[in-house]
Amino acid sequence: MIIIGIAGGTGSGKTTVVNKILTSFPAGEVAVIPQDSYYKDSGHIPMEERSKINFDEPAAIEWTLLTEQLRQLRAGHTIQMPTYSYLTCTRQPETVEVSPCDVVLVEGILVLTDPVLREMMDVKVFVDADADDRLIRVIARDCIERGRTPQMVIDRYEGVLKPMHCQYIEPSKRYADLIVPQGGSNTVAIRLLTDYIESRLSH
Question: How far apart are CA 32 and CA 19, in angstroms?
């Protein structure tokens, strides 16, 4: 099993890169493990307090569960991946069954910040994009998918996203084996990545 970490700032194009890799392989050959599924449960915290949680720092993630489930997949066991609701900031009762497969993509803004997780990765990828391009994508996404106003998104970007990006995400770029500028539109880098995966699978 090949484990590939795909990191990068919010709105950098990670999901596009992941989707383009997925479409290059038969169904069932590649599984995606989103970091966002492993946010710590905040159900015990009052709703007012939940809105203040910083989701852009490593402490927000239950890394031990993520790494343990990856170990289980590598050992050939099916896992029950947790699900998380952004609307309520709680882990949901439903889980997603993930079966062992040839390639596992671990995707999220912070996946290169955890040393234990990094050690498990065969390839570490950082998807890079200009800050203004990322902000535009975040405004579009959060207004449509998460019911926020443009001003709410900008305030959150200035107060949380930008400082956390500078403190945790950008420095994790140095661990990457492959840096993908222009995000999902970089067809050459995505082709290199899929070619590498194919060469590993053919051995």
Answer: 10
Residues paired with residue 130 on neighbouring β-strands, in sequence order: none
Q: Which two tokens stand for residue 2?
A: 């090949």
Q: Which two tokens stand for residue 162?
A: 């930008």
pLDDT in tens, 47-77: 878 777 888 999 999 999 999 999 999 999 9
Measured between alpha carbons, how far apart are the two ends of the chain, in Å? Answer: 12
Structure pTM?
A: 0.90
CA–CA gap between residue 62 and residue 41 (Å, rounded): 9
140 vs 115: CA distance, rounded Å: 32
> Are β-strands 30-34 and 103-107 bridged in parallel, bridged antiparallel, or unpaired?
parallel
Q: Which two tokens stand for residue 21?
A: 């890799």
For residues 16 and 133, the answer to whether their CB atoms sit within 8 Å is no
For residue 105, the one-letter residue type is: L
Cα–Cα dist 138/10, whole Å? 7
